[in-house]
UniProtKB/TrEMBL annotation:
Residues 152-278 form the SCP domain. Residues 1-23 form the signal peptide. CDD domains: CAP_bacterial. This is CAP domain-containing protein. It holds the Pfam family CAP. Keywords: Signal. Gene3D superfamilies: CAP.
């Protein structure tokens, strides 16, 4: 079994600026003006047609930042879970146009980052606080089978060609198939990790992957497990596993013939989403 490795940590970034321009009330359409600037692009960066989505929780987070909270604390207090987030502080810009120009010239990369899709703005006097964020967007619960098939397809695509996992070379391996009992074992462990906010191969009850597979009624000859915390899509979780030598070796192991995969979410947990992949060969 491979050692656990947390994947895709959230990004928390900040920026600030000050202008000596006479203070005036920024236009109420500042979020729209930011979306227009985003579409136009800046500093040689391509524009993003999708406008920002105005989110009240991010406006609340911006207000909390104005009161002295850190970006991470403000998002938590506003009950907005972000995969990525960016804070901009402006002072002295007397119009929306002037504020947007400052953002374009100093924070073009954040403005045109397509992953930062949500915006919240708070204004006080001549100061403006802007929070851009990528919302935590785990798979919908009703898409468990669809996501499992996506993971299976990506894993079999990887197994279909020779691969180097760290210092270990692997030849192409036969395709895996999904096994309902292995899915149950994976789901049990993912729920345990999400509920108790941890990532490890040992369950909160002390169980191992072989224990959980036994409980699921699967008579196995060989068994292994990959876990992850943080990825929101099948593509992200498989990519992360393939980039980790031990996880990659599990995926490429020709002794395995079947797999099960499941995720579980808990917005109050540290990572938000937890994945388990169980790989095995039945005894007969």
């Amino acid at each position: 079994m491979s050692s656990p490795r947390r994947l895709l940590p959230a990004l928390l970034l900040t920026g600030s600026a000050f202008s000596s321009v006479l203070a005036q009330s920024p236009a109420p359409s500042l979020p729209d003006a930011l979306s227009n600037a985003r579409a136009q692009g800046c500093s040689g960066r391509q524009g993003v047609e999708q406008p920002f989505r105005q989110v009240p929780a991010l406006a609340d987070a911006a207000r909390r930042i104005a009161q002295g909270a850190s970006l991470e604390s403000a998002l938590s207090q506003a009950k907005y879970r972000a995969t990525r987030s960016f804070q901009i502080s402006l002072r002295g810009y007397g119009s929306a146009a002037a504020a947007v120009q400052a953002v374009r010239s100093r924070w073009c990369e954040a403005l045109t980052n397509p992953e930062l899709s949500d915006v919240g703005v708070y204004r006080r006097g001549d100061a403006t606080w802007i929070v851009l964020a990528d919302p935590f967007s785990p798979p919908e619960p009703g898409k468990a089978e669809e996501v499992a098939r996506q993971v299976l397809e990506l894993v079999n695509r990887a197994r279909g060609q020779p691969r180097q996992c760290g210092d270990k070379p692997f030849g192409a391996a036969p395709a895996l198939t999904l096994a309902p009992a292995l899915h149950r074992a994976a789901e049990l462990h993912s729920r345990d990790m999400a509920r108790n906010s941890f990532m490890a191969h040992q369950g909160s009850d002390g169980s191992t992957v072989s224990d959980r597979v036994d409980r699921a009624g699967y008579d196995w000859r060989t068994v292994g497990e990959n876990v992850a915390a943080g990825p929101e899509t099948a593509e992200q979780v498989v990519q992360g596993w393939l980039q980790s030598p031990d996880h990659c070796a599990n995926i490429m192991q020709p002794a395995f013939t079947e797999m099960g995969v499941a995720w579980a979410t808990d917005r109050q947990s540290q990572a938000g989403i937890y994945w388990t992949q169980v790989l095995a060969r039945p005894r007969s």
